[in-house]
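Quarterly update, task 2.4: S-adenosylmethionine-bound model.
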Amino acid sequence: MTNQQSNKETLKTAVLSILEDPLNDQNLHGRLMQIHGLFSELTRVSGMDQEMEMMAAVPSAYGKALGINHAAQCLLDLRRTRKYLQGMQKAIALAKTRVSGRPVKVFYAGCGPYAPFMTLLAAIYTSEELSFSILEINERSLEAAKKLIQALDLKDYLIDSYLADAVTFKVPEADQYDILFSETLDAMLYRECYVPILYNMLPQFNDDIILIPENVSLELSLIKPAVAGSEDRVELHKKTIVNVRDLLGQIPQGDGLPSVFKEVPVPLNSMDDFESLIIDTRVKIHEDIVLERGESSLSLPLEMRLEKPFPDSTITFNYQLEPQIELKYTLEPLGS
Ligand SMILES: C[S@@+](CC[C@H](N)C(=O)[O-])C[C@H]1O[C@@H](n2cnc3c(N)ncnc32)[C@H](O)[C@@H]1O
């Protein structure tokens, strides 16, 4: 067996083992460390290099793209990677029911140095079943991804590759694709380009394109302290502050992206029973596959303690794209 064949076999065994025993975290850790070792060796990108260029974020038309190191380390965000693999497996099964006589085609916007949702899935599907175009804004990441694709002999799976900003890119022959994969976000939808990328890309594809992740929302909850005899605090879901698909749906056709989306005021009155507010980033990957709180760096919650006595107030959230992408809030006395 050649090195190439043996690497492909290693990948196939690892990916199948993750998918067949998804709740086994020890197995997941071992398998992803093994895959990371192989990808680092084949690309010479480990995610741990100290060079400035490897760490620097890359500016896009809106927001910033992660540096190559951080992008490489995403592979080791264990449950994130496992859930995206599961989501893609389901999405591919759905897309297969819609196409015949050709592979399911994925447009992968923001592939990073390992293009894991191509390279790992190619280990378990044939090129008659699945193919990809990859796009990346970071030149060194794209070079590494292409090197890996070559090293693993996956060129039959590759339709095209583009060095471009997904926020402005016009996709050639966009109607050939069945799935758009763009995991270009961070917790709190901070800084990265998921929203502007969807704004640019989604209208270019067919209406039934399967988007992964399917949607992201920021959810506000109020927290009461645990009652005596219990360790669990009591949570009350208060409001969805941002729902990306709804935000995009509210932009009138032909209008550009707003610098700031509509304000979301939330009255906070009679808060004496509550000790804090929590904002969760809910990443709905595909159908029932969701990243739960704290499972991944993407779904780390933000908790704000309420100092006592907490005056009746309105907290108003604004999700803004300029001057930088972030969720802002202001707190004012109620009714002011
Ligand atoms: C969170 S990383 C994920 C990398 C890879 N998909 C993975 O799961 O390991 C996001 C990648 O998207 C790229 N990216 C972010 N914004 C982009 C944009 N506007 N255009 C193209 N690529 C972008 C980043 O450079 C980075 O490599």
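Highlight for this quarter: The CA atoms of residues 184 and 194 lie 5 Å apart.
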